[in-house]
């Protein structure tokens, strides 16, 4: 009760979960294979605490606590992900849909969600993203498109994004497939190329 009163004095939306001891214990004990280094536990604890604060209230909480911009953004990413985590449990999601959901999130946000979910499928998907999917990109680049005579412009991003989706979802499995898809996409997306 005392801790809850202190928490609410910091910010009215700040609640300390009854499971906090178990969550902190899991943070100390459970280290996923995809982590590149041991997490800073103090930072991770703040992410876990922030995950239970409504996303709309979190920026003000972070400001009141005088957290820096980078930490605040990471905690906000973690809270959004944890509070909307059930979407990652949908059975028919393609890898590209999961990547779209997780791309640009900090490793600490991913770790927080991985620790706080009790859904094995969601943990498996975060692991697959961290270990494999985030590293999958087409071999083609903007330079490739320029060398193929495509004028620089918005179609570069569209083509490269569609190629990445195709790689992620297994529609492209080798560079020959990518070349064929690339020629098709240039025809569809860039009508004004030379």
Describe the structure.
This protein is mainly alpha-helical and 194 residues long. The chain has two domains: 2-135; 142-189, no CATH class. Helices cover 60% and strands 0% of the residues. The chain contains eleven helices and no strands. The mean pLDDT is 89.
SSE run: HHHHHHHHHHH
Percent of residues in helices: 55-70%
Number of domains: 2
Please tally the β strands and state the result: 0
Q: Report the principal-axis shape.
A: elongated
What percentage of amino acids are in beta strands?
Answer: under 5%
Measured distance between first and last alpha carbons: 71 Å
Please tally the helical runs, counting DSSP H or I stretches of 4 or more residues: 11
Cα radius of gyration in angstroms: 21 Å
Low-confidence stretches: none
The averaged pLDDT comes out at: 89
Question: Structural class, from secondary structure content?
Answer: mainly alpha
Sheet with the most strands, sense and barrel status? none
């Amino acid at each position: 009760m005392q801790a809850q009163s202190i928490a609410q004095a910091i910010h009215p939306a700040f609640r300390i979960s009854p499971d906090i001891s178990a969550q902190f214990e899991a943070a100390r004990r459970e280290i996923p294979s995809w982590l590149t280094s041991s997490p800073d536990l103090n930072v991770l604890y703040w992410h876990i605490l922030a995950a239970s604060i409504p996303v709309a209230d979190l920026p003000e909480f972070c400001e009141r606590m005088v957290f820096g911009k980078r930490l605040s953004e990471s905690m906000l990413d973690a809270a959004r992900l944890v509070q909307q985590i059930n979407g990652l449990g949908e059975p028919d999601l393609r890898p590209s849909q999961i990547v779209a959901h997780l791309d640009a999130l900090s490793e600490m946000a991913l770790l927080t969600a991985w620790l706080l979910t009790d859904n094995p499928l969601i943990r498996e998907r975060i692991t697959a993203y961290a270990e494999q999917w985030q590293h999958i990109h087409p071999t083609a680049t903007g330079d490739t498109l320029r060398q193929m005579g495509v004028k620089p412009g918005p179609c570069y991003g569209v083509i490269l994004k569609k190629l990445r989706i195709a790689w992620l979802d297994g529609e492209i499995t080798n560079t020959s497939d990518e070349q064929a898809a690339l020629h098709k996409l240039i025809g569809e997306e860039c009508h004004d190329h030379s």
